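Design request, tokens follow.
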């Protein structure tokens, strides 16, 4: 026996479509606005689901009225019935149930800690998310990178892959009204000594057929090798991720080969776009090198700054105990050159001594924590703009990268705001 009557099966279809569509749309809007709204997007999805069920109930699922005549009295009367039901429940009742569910989720979900992608969590996840957000819209430009050289490579990549698309894939005749990229191939390059990764947004990728998607992914790999061919040293590992408006189509990993006649040369593995975690290692901070030096028992490690200070102190001549009582100064030792204006900096007056403002940036290497508790050891170098929304950090290996302040824990956000105020007052 059927559980629906008429086209009542459209009631759950409308509910599920509203839930998924609403959650995705509000999630994307939150990402564009750089607002953490994983719970809020889910709540709004339930309300969108209720709205879709109500729209069905008000249009296709509305009750039908039929004029009937009472055979006993001969009086006309109106018979009202619901030809479309699901589990024998009409659409207007499902609307009420959907609203009650949305209200319940609005009350309960804020108290529920969602996993927020724990399955994909790992070293490099936060850095990948930060890079991926840069190729969602073109408000900050079409090319991005973790270093100036990487940004130049991203600019070249964006231009070459566009030529590939124009030559191998028919260009869309009508510009999409929902495009946030203005038809640009937004590209991010993360370049290090031994590895490199390119992330590229391909406009209207969802409209490509299967063959065209395969072609553009291979073309992206070849483009990455072409732009890296001019580098003094090719990275050992190379990864290329091709995405559309929201989702990745394919991620290709292999070794960089430079300019080659074979577009697919160097490819070792192709991954489905859902396996974003395969590129996390390309963004993960390198592990600190182990200290192989031995230390005498009972001695304490000294910093590089203290070692330099000690060396400088040894270079200065020691004062003789009787120097203050001697009438004539002792002659300078021939092994120690007397200070001159060119070799000895002038003494700094007390009024111009370094203040907390100038000493605030760059900071010492310390541990910062993200909003979900992941640690990151780095030094704060500077803030990229007057608003202090994005800060540049430097790891112990010298690698620099930008991170939005809102990605940090509330405690670290407060500290970053304090440091930003100090830097602005200098």
């Amino acid at each position: 026996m059927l559980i629906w009557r008429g086209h009542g099966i459209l009631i759950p279809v409308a509910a599920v479509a509203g839930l998924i569509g609403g959650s995705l749309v509000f999630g994307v809007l939150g990402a564009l606005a750089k607002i953490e709204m994983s719970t809020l997007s889910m709540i709004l999805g339930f309300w969108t689901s209720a709205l879709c069920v109500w729209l069905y109930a008000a249009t296709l699922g509305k009750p039908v009225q039929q004029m009937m005549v009472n055979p006993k009295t001969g009086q006309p009367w109106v018979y009202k019935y619901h030809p479309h039901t699901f589990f024998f429940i009409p659409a207007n009742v499902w609307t009420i149930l959907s609203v009650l569910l949305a209200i319940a989720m609005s009350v309960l979900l804020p108290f529920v800690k969602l996993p927020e992608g724990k399955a994909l969590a790992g070293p490099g996840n936060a850095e990948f998310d930060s890079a991926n957000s840069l190729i969602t819209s073109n408000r900050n430009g079409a090319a991005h990178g973790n270093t100036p050289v990487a940004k130049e490579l991203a600019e070249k990549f964006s231009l070459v892959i566009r030529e590939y698309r124009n030559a191998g894939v028919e260009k869309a005749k009508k510009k999409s009204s929902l495009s946030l990229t203005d038809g640009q191939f937004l590209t991010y390059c993360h370049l290090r000594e031994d590895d490199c990764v390119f992330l590229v947004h391909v406009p209207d990728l969802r409209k490509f057929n299967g063959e065209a998607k395969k072609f553009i992914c291979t073309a992206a790999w070849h483009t990455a090798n072409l732009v890296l061919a001019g580098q003094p040293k090719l990275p050992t590992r190379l990864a290329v991720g091709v995405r559309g408006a929201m989702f990745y189509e394919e991620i290709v990993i292999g070794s960089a080969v430079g300019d080659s006649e074979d577009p697919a040369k160097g490819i070792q593995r192709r991954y489905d776009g859902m396996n974003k975690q395969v590129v996390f290692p390309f963004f993960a901070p390198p592990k600190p090198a182990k200290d192989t030096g031995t230390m005498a028992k009972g001695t304490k490690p000294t910093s590089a700054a203290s070692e330099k200070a000690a060396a400088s102190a040894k270079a200065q001549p020691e004062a003789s105990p009787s120097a203050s009582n001697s009438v004539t100064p002792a002659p300078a030792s021939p092994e120690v050159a007397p200070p001159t204006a060119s070799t000895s900096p002038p003494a700094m007056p007390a009024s111009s001594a370094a203040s907390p403002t100038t000493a605030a940036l760059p900071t010492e290497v310390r541990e910062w924590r993200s909003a979900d508790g992941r640690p990151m050891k780095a030094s704060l170098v500077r803030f990229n703009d007057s608003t202090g929304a994005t800060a540049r950090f430097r790891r112990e290996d010298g690698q620099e990268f930008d991170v939005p302040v809102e990605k940090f824990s509330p405690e670290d956000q407060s500290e970053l705001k304090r440091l930003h105020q100090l830097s602005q007052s200098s």
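Comment from the thread starter after seeing the answer: thanks! The chain has ten helices and 15 strands.
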